[in-house]
Amino acid sequence: MIQVLVGVDQEAGPVVPLLKRLQFPRAHYAFVHTLSASDYLSYGIEGARTSDEVEKIVVAENRHARQLAESAAKGLPGAVGEVLFGHPTEAILRRAESLHAELVALNAAHTHSERMAVLTGSVARGVALGAHQSVLIARPSELFQADDLPVRAVFATDHSEYANRCLEQLIELAPQGLSHLLVMTAVPERELEVLDRELPELGVSVAASVRRALETRNQSVVKRLSQELRHTTVESVVLTLPIHESIDQALDQASADLLILGAKGHSVLERLTLGSVSLHQALQGPASVLILRA
């Protein structure tokens, strides 16, 4: 069983349809939303000084969380709901640890709720940076309301040892709703040109050799994924634009609404396995992002 912690606002947002589309076969889901100290003020309860008044609020919010979970649970097994109190990022990270969750899923941006703590973009980034678990960040798209359409995705790799462990993590999640997956790696053309200029004595194109080596490694990933994800069409591409531009190109080429990549470290300077691309940059893109940690 894979435990998935799902952070939601008063409305479920795009994360629930995306989870339903991905169809993780062994997942059980725990839904949470957060209520911080500032939300008490928006409730108009800054004068609620008695334990009975506070208890009524807690009971009402937990009832709402259960109702939200029940509403979203269609197609998501084992869904339960609860309210977390405190700073949203910290509360979600603590709950993920206590649940031994393997995946944290939440929305990239908030809905404007007067009653509930919202999962803002900064909270999504905070969770992505701080979580030891893999993190799914869902963004609204034209498929936002659809929960039965297959997912098209890009898997970005630099073929490092860590990236290969992330590949195994993706296989472990085994998304059954992934119809098309484009395996991409990138090496900027100008870097290849530098190699050829600095090593003319070799008498061969270093750039061409690097491209062939990356294509070979990509094909080994394609073969592995094709064997394990039998419902998924897996293809490969090696791109030569700067990394962030290569990601955008791959997403466009695959008509993908999900980017999958690996990340390690837990700081603002965290780097993706694609070398020069920071986690912050990846989270600024138009697609939903599955950040794998292995």
TrEMBL record:
N-terminal signal peptide: none
Listed CDD domains: USP-like
Domain UspA span(s) in chain numbering: 4-139, 153-293
Pfam families: Usp
Top-level division of the source organism's lineage: Bacteria
Record SUPFAM superfamilies: Adenine nucleotide alpha hydrolases-like
UniProt cross-references to InterPro entries, sorted A to Z: Rossmann-like_a/b/a_fold, Universal_stress_UspA, UspA
Family, per entry: Belongs to the universal stress protein A family.
The protein's name in its UniProt record: Nucleotide-binding universal stress UspA family protein
Organism: Armatimonas rosea
